[in-house]
Input
Amino acid sequence: MSDAPAVLQTVALRKEYDLGKVKVEAVKGIDIDVRQGEFVALMGPSGCGKSTLLYMLGGMVAPSSGQVFIDGKDLTEMSDAQRTVVRRDKIGFVFQRFNLFPTLSALDNVKLAQEIQRWRNPIGRGDPDRAQRLLERVGLARKIGRRPYELSTGEQQRVAIARALVNRPEILLADEPTGNLDTKNSEHVLGVFTSLNEEFGQTMMVITHNPAVAERAHRTIRMLDGSVIDDGTGR
Amino acid sequence: MPSLVRANIFQRKTRAAITILAVAIEVTAVLLIVGLTNGTLDEVSGRMQAVGADVLVQPAGSSPILGLGSLTVSDRYVDRLGEIDGVAATAPIYHWTAKIGDGAPVNIWGIDERFEQVGASVEILEGRNLRLAGDNPGGATSESQMIVDRRLADANGLRVGQQIRMLDTDWRIVGIARAGVGARIYVPLAVLQELVGQAGRVHLIFVKAERLEEVGELASRIEAEVPGIETTAIEEYSQALVQSIGGLNSFRVAIAGIAVSLSFLVILLAMYTSIIERTREIGILKALGGSKVYIVLTIMQESMLLSALGVIGGYGLARLSAWILTSSYPTLAIELTWDWTIYAGMLGLVGGILGSFYPAVRAARQDPVRALRDE
Output
């Protein structure tokens, strides 16, 4: 793994929120790199800047200073439209609260991500059957037509994982994906993550409070008060 | 079309139905108001042309809209006009307006035997024709007979032999004529003139030209030779009618403007509330890589689909309303033309596009992370 190229890298990454009279430094000059195929757990107490870091890595939050490189390209130098393309083609997001569209079936939720990618990019990486195959892969073959409210929380999160992966992103970013799940469903979702990483070499960075996730990850980055206190490399 | 657009419409059925209905009402209002205006104008000018005369002569300063003016000329002008070179026949008309039953006021023409000489053919469907001065000298006044057209008879349940009260006189319906020629009611000229105290006065005189190709010249010649009158070639009557109604086009533009504003506001409100309701969903779209343009177009597609359904509904509703109105009031003329059908549809769509633009842009500008954090 250590020989693999870095697909995700930050240099002196900083984020400061201006709350009127008070300025809060959520992320304080972080340098990390994540190699291709690596499964990284990101841990730390609530409010330590994990989510801000994750959203900056995904191009959804602009850093105050520093750089984010994805495949060697600096996200901070890109326009909003260019970052959107990177997010669409290279990154998959999984959220703690699933964020599925309640009006769409499980299959349509997954296909929506394909629809977005194919829009204005008809060649794309379209594969009409991939959405269904992924739902089968995460154990939802018989529930593809169900709406989110007809699925358990664990099943909803598996739909969200299938959606995040449908466009074959190089990097999967997950914000506490087991945070809303009971032990059994957490174990199921964790199994999906592990097998995806082992079988397909999917690069993943997962925010978690769950030690079981950290146990299965290749390494764990620990944060405190906006800084990395342990990047898991032993350095 | 994105699956999300379809799903949103089906999921939010009440909002979609209200939006569609509002656009449909807008399209219906435009089509009916313009249709009623055009239909009335066409019907009036059509009935005038169906008389068969070539030139309409009126006192100078009269409106082509019969009934708007009270100017009359002496019926001696009828003979005077008949002496002009190129005139084949003349027919005087005294015009009156009265309400029959509960309907709108209708045009009544007092005619004499010369009416048929200018080419007018009142086709009697039931009963008989008027017995005019030439047929029954001195008998007209005592009889107070009238002919009503089929449309008016059907609208008011009038029958041959029935008596109706008008101008403090009992009139007997002696015949029912085919609708579409001249007035809705014909009565003997002398009777009408006497009852309204206008003996020897007429509102208009129809002129039949000897040579059809000289109608324009004849109209000019009449005006030159007979002072105090003005002429309108019957084939130009429709145009003269439109010109006489000052601001008709402005009225149509105003109706169109109100319609677009209504559609704009309804769609704006519907889409704006929808966007606020779906803040989180828009955040998800952004997280999935949906560009600003994609989000704007997705929202606008939804409003365009709603507007298009509203336009189609409006076409149906307009036709249904026109049928109900003309069935209930057979004397109403509503003309739903293709050009205004297209304009009304475009107005509905334009209103929808304009109304959804601001909410769509606002949605596209949302901060995705903040949107995802919102409940």
